[in-house]
Amino acid sequence: MKIDETYLTDEEKLIVQKLKNEMYSALTVDHIRFYKKEIEQIVSQAKRRQQFIDKCIKKSIAF
Q: What domain of life is recorded for the organism (predicted)?
């Protein structure tokens, strides 16, 4: 599974790596889906955080 770690903090990268390791040793497909969903949520939140930061920076530059 390849994910874009561009927006992840160091702590988030560690969590994602641990979730990947757990996913590889999962016993059922449901477990794999759970870990994948968790990883996707972390990445999604990191992207939203970056969009918010970019938006705030643009607003501060405009003033």
A: Bacteria
Residue 5 included in any domain: no
Residue 48 lies in a domain: yes
User: Quick one: pLDDT at residue 18?
Assistant: 97
pTM as predicted: 0.84
Range of the domain at 33: 10-62
Q: Are 34 and 61 in contact (CB under 8 A)?
A: no
- Asked whether residue 1 is domain-assigned, the answer is no
Check residue 63 and give its pLDDT: 59
Number of H helices, E strands in the chain: 2, 0
Q: Which residue has the tokens 């930061």?
A: 53
Does any domain span residue 4? no
